[in-house]
Design goal:
By secondary structure, the chain is of the alpha+beta class. The chain is about 40% helix and about 10% strand.
Length: about 200
């Protein structure tokens, strides 16, 4: 399966929440897409509910099925609550941290910045969006790209105190990955236990 590049509003309406960020179109049509989206009501099975939650997590973080499964298996090998560890692994991805730092307005935009070699980790260019950050690593903008309009616009007025697990330095245009976020510090509306139950079948 290739990465989804279709209308994001359609997917957000499917889940009933703005998983890609604020969306005026969704606010106007806050019901499922399709001809019968505003009228059809049907009971969703337990499996359907679990699958829906997994799909929501995949779309939210822009991860493909194989990548997602690999992250889940990695989470299973670690000590702790598997669902929480899965979300922590997703949050530790380079593209997500670039987004959380406010360098990009959305995760897809952050992914593009990483792929196009605009982002550095500890001073070295890293163009792998799935790169997993470790405690203490510094994520910044490549020196020659610091004047890019898209980055300046994203950073303008961004509240860098929202996430206690990352620290932003305005002077160097870089952020420090202080530690893996606690579940309470991850704002995504994802019921990770449902994903664990799905993969445990």
């Amino acid at each position: 399966m290739a990465r989804y590049t279709g209308p994001k509003t359609r997917i957000a309406r499917k889940f009933g929440e703005p998983i890609f960020g604020p969306d005026k179109s969704q606010a106007r049509r806050n019901y499922a897409p399709g001809q019968h989206g505003n009228t059809r009501k049907h009971k969703v099975s337990e499996y359907g509910t679990q699958l829906r939650e997994k799909q929501k997590a995949k779309y939210t973080y822009g991860v493909l099925e194989k990548q997602f499964r690999n992250l889940f298996e990695k989470a299973q090998t670690k000590k702790g609550v598997t669902g929480e560890i899965l979300l922590q692994l997703l949050e530790s991805r380079l593209d997500n941290v670039v987004y959380r730092l406010g360098i990009a307005p959305t995760r897809p935009a952050a992914r593009q910045l990483v792929l196009h070699r605009h982002i550095v980790v500890d001073g070295e260019v890293v163009n792998i969006p799935s790169y997993s950050l470790k405690q203490g690593q510094i994520v910044g903008v490549r020196e020659r790209d610091k004047s890019m309009v898209v980055i300046a616009d994203a950073l303008s007025g961004f509240n860098h105190s929202k996430y206690p697990w990352i620290e932003w330095d305005e002077n160097t245009m870089a952020g420090k990955f202080l530690h893996t976020p606690e579940r309470a510090d991850i704002p995504e509306n994802i019921k990770e236990q449902l994903i664990v139950e799905l993969y445990s079948k």
